[in-house]
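REVIEWER CHECKLIST
Item 1: Sequence provided? yes
Item 2: Single chain? yes
Item 3: Sequence as submitted:
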Amino acid sequence: QVQLVESGGGLVQAGGSLRLSCAASGGTFSSFYMGWFRQAPGKEREFVAAIGRSADGRSADSTFYADSVKGRFTVFRDNAKYTVYLQMNSLKPEDTANYYCAASKLSVPKSPRGWDYWGQGTQVTVSS
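Item 4: Structure as written out by the authors:
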């Protein structure tokens, strides 16, 4: 029902920055919680960040971050463009992974099994 398409991944040196985008279609974007997950080869998909849904037509300001990215990553959304972003600063080699956008109707679960819709992923590689 809902389609999510990530973009903005690439190769950067440690300490650099990237901004990921996730464009949504097929649903009411402002009514969804939006999140970012990542998965490195041989590891489980893990929670990165999330942002609340709109309230009465206004964007929610609540954000959530994994301890590993807190202070370095920022999640924000532009409901008029049906897009959620992940600004990644001070990147580390440990951040290398395929990054996935996700949407949830009712909550912000830390487990990927609790999310309703997923994008195809975009690769982020950080060299040392």
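Item 5: Key structural point noted by reviewer: The chain has no helices and eleven strands.
Item 6: Recommendation: ____
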